[in-house]
Amino acid sequence: MSKHRLEMLSDGVFAVVMTLLVLELKPELPVHGNDEVVAHALRELVRPLLSYVFAFVLSGIFWSLHHRKFALVRHTDGPHTAFTLAFLFAITLLPLSVSIYLKALSSNLAQTVYFGNFAFIALALLTSWLYAKHAGLADLATSPQIAATLTRRMTALCVLGLIACASSWFGQTWLLISGLPVILWLRYRRAPAPPSETSGA
């Protein structure tokens, strides 16, 4: 099956979700508030704004990886379409998880839901990519290094999401810091160079 309609659906979902994220930033201001009231409201928005920026940036990273995946995928089939729809479903949950987190910033469970959503997205994306590779849907021969880089980066996001979930659930943020070396290694590790061809008789 052609991949183009699936790509168009994906772009539409990302556009809507990334727009809805900002709607959770709602400063509480009286109609006739003075400068002091506005300044206080802006200070209260700092943490929610940082959470929004984090969610928006990660959404952009997922969109970029998804786009690069489809640059290598030649066509789709039933299972790959289902995996991609699961990935898009996880994306559509972002406004919900962000809303829960922003309304309960001190709750470990809210943080787990927030980071669990990102882990779900990363796992769904990695699953769809691995299936595309093993089902022969992707052109791996043309750009083997790009394919290997995609796999490493998707795996790094999965590891990051799972560690963030665990650290949030147990209230141990140091777990996330301890996983950074592994994530950076997965993210920046260079693929081995292909063996050079030797001329022989």
Q: Which outline best applies?
A: elongated
Global mean pLDDT: 83
Count of strand segments: 0
| Poorly predicted parts | 191-201
Report, as a whole number of angstroms, the end-to-end distance: 45 Å
Query: Which structural class fits the helix and strand makeup?
Result: mainly alpha
Number of helices: 9
What number of domains? 1
Largest sheet: none
Task: Walk me through what this model shows.
- The protein is mainly alpha-helical and 201 residues long.
- Mean pLDDT is 83; it is low at 191-201.
- The chain starts with a helix and ends in a 13-residue tail after the last helix.
- Helix 3 packs antiparallel against helix 7, helix 4 packs antiparallel against helix 6 and helix 7 packs antiparallel against helix 9.
- The protein has helices spanning 4-20, 35-44, 46-72, 78-92, 94-103, 108-134, 144-170, 174-178, 180-188.
- The chain is elongated, with a radius of gyration of 20 Å.
- The chain has one domain.
- The protein contains 9 helices and no strands.
- The chain is 73% helix and 0% strand.
In short, what is this structure?
The protein is mainly alpha-helical and 201 residues long. Helices cover 73% and strands 0% of the residues.
Comma- or semicolon-separated keywords:
elongated; 201 residues; mainly alpha
Topology (elements, then pairings):
Blueprint: H1 4-20, H2 35-44, H3 46-72, H4 78-92, H5 94-103, H6 108-134, H7 144-170, H8 174-178, H9 180-188
Helix pairs in contact: 1-3, 1-4, 3-6, 3-7, 4-6, 5-6, 6-7, 7-9
